[in-house]
Amino acid sequence: MTSEITLFVNPAAGRGRGARAARPAASALRAAGFRVRTVLGGNAQEALTRARRAVEAGTGALVAVGGDGMAHLALQAVAGTRTPLGLVAVGTGNDFARTLGLPVRDPAAAGRVVAGVLKGAGPRDIDLGRVGGTWFGTVLASGFDSRVNDRGNRMRWPGGRFRYDLAMLAELAALRPLRYRITLDDGPAREVEATLVAVGNGSSYGGGMRICADADPTDGLFDVTVVGACSRTTLLRVFPRVYRGTHLNHPVVTVHRAARVELAAEGVTGYADGEPLGPLPLTARCVPAAVRVAAP
After folding, report:
1. Which residues constitute the domain of residue 250?
2. Do 112 and 140 reside in the same domain of the chain?
3. pLDDT at residue 28, rounded to an integer
């Protein structure tokens, strides 16, 4: 592996933590003997183009500095190649870093871990989800959770996570079950009423909500969590349990495993790694060993 690696930086991540985090991460990588170059972009597409050029030019690794959005963008550059991906997680959610067992909001420690893996045992392969031409590492969300995202994204005030707390309250007030058509692998299509359906390559989204708590990104399968039709009272009772993963034991929740998942529902947007994919219907495929990660 070449000793030059590329830092892929989102300066705005975590209200400016991305720019500040790049320096201690780069110092840790240089201390391990790597030459470090930095890739930025004026917008997501420009940044992705530059990251892909670095991969095509043979960089030894692409190390994304930011949150889950930056990790998602980096996946589009490295998935399907043999270029390792490292993460310096300093965003709001950081669920992909949690899935990989990497430090969160400690850029120097993350840089040391990534360097240690690259110089030591080497990167490991994990699965990714794919919808059309878009790769994802954590969870594809649809239903109540994606509607909260839709509403939060439309709101201009307040800023930060509080915006999504307010969006959740508004969506709770409007809660109603959705009619889904779900097809798993080559099985029959099933029509179900559900509050949400989450397709997990990783276990969590939304900053530690373990919606697909038992998902394993190395088993070649998604965990599909279906939260059935329920009242606001039931949802409020179940929701706090998602941070521990104990919601999976509730009677309103069912879990399935499949390598291909087709989802259809009227008026529902799919989000993966927190990024909008577009309206359902969508088909997600689990691609085994799709990316090499510089993680323990």
Report:
1. 136-288
2. no
3. 97
Cα atoms in the 13 Å half-sphere on the side-chain side of 130: 16
Tell me: do 180 and 68 sit in the same domain: no
Phi-psi group of 127: left, alpha or beta (phi > 0 → left; psi -120 to 50 → alpha; rest → beta): beta
- For the record, the structure tokens of 288 come out as 């085994």
Output the pLDDT for position 206: 84
Token couple for 157: 């005030």
Q: Residue type for 44, please?
A: A
pLDDT tens profile 41-79: 768 888 899 999 999 999 999 999 998 999 999 999 999
CATH code where residue 269 lies = 2.60.200.40
128 in any annotated domain: no
Q: Per residue, what are the HEC states of 11-44?
A: CCHHHHHHHHHHHHHHHHHHHCCCEEEEECCCCH
Residue 250 has pLDDT above 60, yes or no: yes
Contacts by residues 109-114 (CB-CB < 8 Å, ≥ 24 positions apart): 109/28, 110/25, 110/28, 110/86, 111/24, 111/25, 111/26, 111/27, 111/28, 111/29, 111/63, 112/28, 112/32, 113/294, 113/295, 113/296, 114/29, 114/61, 114/63, 114/86, 114/87, 114/88, 114/294, 114/295
Please give the pLDDT value at position 174: 77
Q: Which two tokens stand for residue 267?
A: 């008026």
Read off the DSSP letter of residue 187.
S
Q: What is the pLDDT of residues 18-36, one digit of tens each?
A: 678 889 999 999 999 999 9
Give the global pTM. 0.93
Q: How far, in Å, are 4, 70, 78, 213, 221 from residue 58 at the CA level?
A: 9, 20, 11, 36, 30
**pLDDT (average), residues 258-269:** 97
Tokens at 104, concatenated? 């969160």
User: If you ran DSSP here, which 8-state letter would residue 121 be given?
Assistant: T
Helix axis angle, 68-78 relative to 13-31, nearest 10°? 60
CB 88 within 8 A of CB 111: yes
Q: Cis ω on the peptide bond leading into residue 123 (within 30° of 0)?
A: no
